[in-house]
């Protein structure tokens, strides 16, 4: 997880490392496979001033044994984190793999989840980078792949590209990345979604090629208590490409649902 200028806000307690800012209803942010705190800087900056507590646990993406590197194990990790923090009423906000973890946690433990927010979530379908990993030594290839995640390729800064390049060139991280991708594909939630009654806000980039727009439509159709919002000229991470609009959509939705 990137600590950046918020390094002093990172807490380490027991097995958990997390950022926590503000007071009020907790918004627990779940980062994606190659994401981190820096992806949600605008959320961290905005929502504490609106009487929400923003909490971002560092998910043990590469720290679990290979046999436990699965979506379900991460959902169980989230459950243990919420219990550790004694959170009994939370908003879960997840991007990509984080959305999938949030959905599965909500299926398994609906009571503490007051609302669910998913953006570019896996769980139904995703077009992963996996096919390109044999070229992992080619920096320009990885750079092009990272840029494809966004509508505006400039959002894929050198820092982001360097991090992806380092990850796919670390053999064990690569093996675990592929294990997580396979777990996400296996753990399709199409049959589970109609039973998730939790209010759900779906915020999706119109130009997402990782989880294309049809995926958002399917989530919206299958989740019985959901609202779908589109972000134009936007790829897989609306909270990075259009942070102010993302915050406005989410804040207005929370108000409309009295959450």
Please count the helical segments. 9
Low-confidence parts = 1-5, 129-134
Largest sheet: 8 strands, mixed
Please report the first level of CATH classification, the CATH class.
Alpha Beta
Q: How many strands appear in the DSSP assignment? A: 8
| Mean pLDDT across every amino acid position | 90
Radius of gyration: 17 Å
Key features of this structure:
259 residues, alpha/beta, globular, disordered N terminus
Structure commentary:
- It contains 9 helices and 8 strands.
- The chain starts with 9 loop residues before the first strand and ends with a helix.
- Helix 2 crosses helix 3.
- The protein has a single domain, classed as 3-Layer(aba) Sandwich (Rossmann fold).
- Strand 1 and strand 2 form a beta hairpin.
- It is globular and about 50 Å long.
- The N terminus is likely disordered.
- With 259 residues, the chain is of the alpha/beta class.
- An 8-stranded mixed β-sheet has the order 1-2-4-3-5-6-7-8, sandwiched between helices.
